[in-house]
# Entry
Amino acid sequence: MKTLTALVGLCAALVAAAPAALAQAWPSADTRIIVPYPPGSEPDVLARDVAQRLGAASGKAVIVENRPGANSIIGTDVVAKAPGDGATLLMVDRLAVVTNPMLYSKLPYDSATQLKPVTDMAGVRLFVAVSPNFPARNWRDFVAYAKANPKKIDVAIAGNGHVNHIGMEMVAQSEGIRFNYIPYAGMTAATNAVLAGEVQSVMTGGLSALRMTQSKPVAMLAVGDDRRASYLPDVPTVVEAGGKAGSIPSTVFAFFAPGRTPDALVERMAQVLNGLVTPDFRRTYEARGLVMLGSTPKTMAAEMKEDAQRFERVIRELGIKLD
# Structure
């Protein structure tokens, strides 16, 4: 995956049309957006804002339906088997769609044929944080502590195979250390566990990182991008912190349509969704930790191919299998 800095430059020219003009292209059916994560999670918050704007622009009912569980598989399955009439969309962490076929030998759907990329909506920088009472307060001390205490650092993950699980395994591999993983029911529960001192560390997105730093004195050790985030400017990049480039991944919240949706309809939906990202919407979300993107179905599919090549190697080297 390209860095978010590169993705922003790649996608900026694609987000140009006005929502009111594009609304005419939206399907006539009312729309539901399936979010395979709990209410209040980062993709859920984004999906609800998109739904509100899409409903206002199209004059149609747009609802968000949470179907959490099984590393996004439950909700994704609903969309994969839905009619291709534009009435059902999936808002999901793109890497989950890419990596789940590598992690599970049996899925209830075929993501290659039963899902179609629509558009990348928001890039997610990932941060590594430690609890308020953890003795190491910077990257180098964190790695030194982990080396001296193998598998003694409990890491909160939003389920086995979640991007923050794979991401922390990438950190562990790059630094020659080992963690003990504690699964929680979603990112909110995982970050709350770190705030409470139940576990020592977590990898989380920008919105959660902001919440954590505002509530308690957690230490944000590094961000996984090639430049610092404007909303947390004191947090160093992983290279600045003393880690290795690429050891903390980034991800994207993206829209998918059922695989049977005609390509022309997918293209039209992408145009409408991209057109919803007004300058005000962009500023609001970038201040909250997301990098608004926008893409075509073809560019999104090409990025997913790059993701697949990289993460297939990572998952194979790490030996992660979930069934």
In short: The two ends are 26 Å apart (CA to CA). Residues 297-318 form the longest helix (22 residues).
